[in-house]
Design goal:
Largest sheet: 5 strands, antiparallel
InterPro entries: HATPase_C_sf, HATPase_dom, His_kinase_dom, HisK_dim/P_dom, HisK_dim/P_sf, PAC, PAS, PAS-assoc_C
Order of helices and strands: HEEHHEEEHHEHEEHEEHHEEHHHHH
Protein name: Virulence sensor protein BvgS
Oligomer: single chain
Strand content: 15-25%
CATH topology of the largest domain: Heat Shock Protein 90
Helix content: 40-55%
Structural class: alpha+beta
Number of domains: 4
Shape: elongated
EC number: 2.7.13.3
Catalytic activity: ATP + protein L-histidine = ADP + protein N-phospho-L-histidine
CATH class of the largest domain: Alpha Beta
Function: Member of the two-component regulatory system BvgS/BvgA. Phosphorylates BvgA via a four-step phosphorelay in response to environmental signals.
Length: 460
């Protein structure tokens, strides 16, 4: 068999078994070669049925004219057209398809352009899958937003009456004429209510995160006070479990930094709370170290280490997923499985991430580092406290007692209405009203009570 005949047979055989459309045209746009895939796609039986015909015989005028312009440009410039996505028509019937097209000039032995060769890869199925995926993602995002809005709405609706229940439970406990059983029952109500409130707050936080509405409010914070408050809470919980608790703070750390007090406390309480929860023997230890310093502030490293049951690498991979709890001890643990997910998002919003090191039976280490800017004023850094409440806006004792009562029972609506009345009295009272209204909007009963008790009393 002559070499040229063999090459033609080989070329024809390979081309007809390729899933792509392979073709060649002369300078006038007439087909001089086409494989079986091209023929079937254009509605003819054999490739030979295409020879001598042009795109105008198969496509609508606007499509055939566009292809002719593209091919003329390739032949005139000598520059190939590579992997261009095209929305084309198969036949006159109007059946549409997506093609990934490559066209190159055909050149003879003398370097003269004699036509064009092309390959079309049908990507219709891929484009359809991408479209369905986009639709599914959009629907999932809409569902997530709807769920987040529902959770946020329900959380706000639940917190107000729950604060009232907690407030009345606290008021009843303050009464002296209670039996041991009655006091125990009230303490159980308060404990369960605060646990439920913590779950609601977690749901509200995760809803904010999913909506992209997690906000940080950095302010001047006395770091030793923040750490003392966190450690004080967790030391009590550790003592209840008869395990050790220790906290070490680097003396080189500045007293005052700029950070979101509530969110940092929330992260530390979540990490320490988990450590205490899953440690039955040994201790939980938190260390806070100076990791770096500059004129603009400091870098602080937080480490929470425990001697608990530890985790496998597979469990570590999932512990930051929302609503996920790991380990055999889950059955006896409280919570929504949101604490670590929320903590990672908060630390991420602060410009860092939480690192985890653990092994089964060897305990766990959670650590992260935060950049904390220096305070804006030297006076604030020296004082290490927030500015004192103005003494120029005293209030009658009866009104303050009424406010304390509202704070204890969690009646945020009446507190907000009192703040509206307060702002009409004077500029100093307006500042107090703004602070009071902000705390009421966050349902911060304890903060409101502390705030009210610090307000100046008007002499009788």
């Amino acid at each position: 068999m002559p070499t040229s005949s063999f090459e033609q047979i080989l070329l024809r055989t390979l081309a007809d078994h390729m899933p792509q459309r392979i073709y060649a045209k002369d300078l006038e746009g007439r087909f001089v070669f086409a494989n079986l895939c091209v023929a079937r796609g254009m509605g003819v039986s054999l490739p030979s049925d295409l020879i001598g015909r042009t795109d105008a015989d198969f496509y609508p005028p606007e499509a055939s004219e566009q292809y002719r312009r593209e091919e003329t440009e390739v032949m005139q410039t000598g520059r190939p057209m590579v992997d261009r996505e095209e929305h084309v028509h198969y036949t006159r019937s109007g059946t549409e398809a997506w093609m990934l097209t490559t066209k190159v000039p055909l050149v003879d032995d003398d370097g003269k352009v004699i036509g064009i060769a092309g390959i079309n890869h049908d990507i219709t199925d891929r484009k359809a899958a991408e479209f369905k995926l986009r639709q599914a993602m959009e629907q999932a995002q809409e569902a997530t937003l709807a769920k987040s809005r529902f959770l946020a709405s329900m959380s706000h609706e639940l917190r107000t009456p729950l604060n009232c229940v907690l407030g009345y439970a606290r008021l009843l406990q303050d009464r002296g004429e209670l039996s041991i059983e009655q006091r125990s029952n009230l303490q159980m109500i308060e404990h369960s209510g605060r646990h439920l409130l913590a779950l609601i707050n977690d749901l509200l936080d995760i809803a904010k995160i999913e909506e992209g509405k997690l906000e940080l409010t950095p302010a001047e914070v006395h770091l030793p006070d923040l750490l003392a408050a966190v450690c004080g809470i967790m030391r009590v919980k550790a003592t209840e479990k008869h395990i050790g608790f220790a906290c070490s703070v680097d003396p080189a750390l500045p007293a005052v930094v700029l950070v979101d007090n509530r969110r940092l406390s929330q992260v530390l309480l979540n990490l320490l709370g988990n450590a205490v929860k899953f440690t039955d023997v040994g201790e939980v230890r938190m260390s806070v170290k100076l990791a770096g310093a500059s004129a603009g502030g400091v870098r602080v490293r937080f480490e929470v280490r425990d001697t608990g049951m530890g985790m496998s690498s597979q469990e570590i991979h999932h512990i930051f997923d929302p609503y996920v709890q790991v380990g055999d001890e889950v059955r006896r643990s409280e919570g929504t499985g949101l604490g670590l997910a929320i903590s990672r998002q908060i630390v991420g919003a602060m410009g860092s991430d939480i690192d985890v090191r653990s092994a089964p039976g060897l305990g766990s280490l959670f650590c992260f580092e935060l950049e904390m800017p220096a305070p804006l004023t030297r006076e604030a850094a020296a004082a290490g406290t927030t500015p004192p409440i103005s003494q120029d806006a005293p209030l009658p004792e009866a009104e303050l007692q009424s406010l304390e009562q509202l704070a204890r029972i969690g009646n945020m609506g009446d507190i907000a209405r009192f703040a509206t009345h307060l702002q009409t009295l004077s500029d100093s009272h307006r500042l107090l009203a703004d602070q009071l209204r902000t705390m009421a909007s966050r349902c911060e009963s304890k903060a409101i009570l502390d705030f009210v008790q610090a307000l100046p009393r008007k002499a009788a």
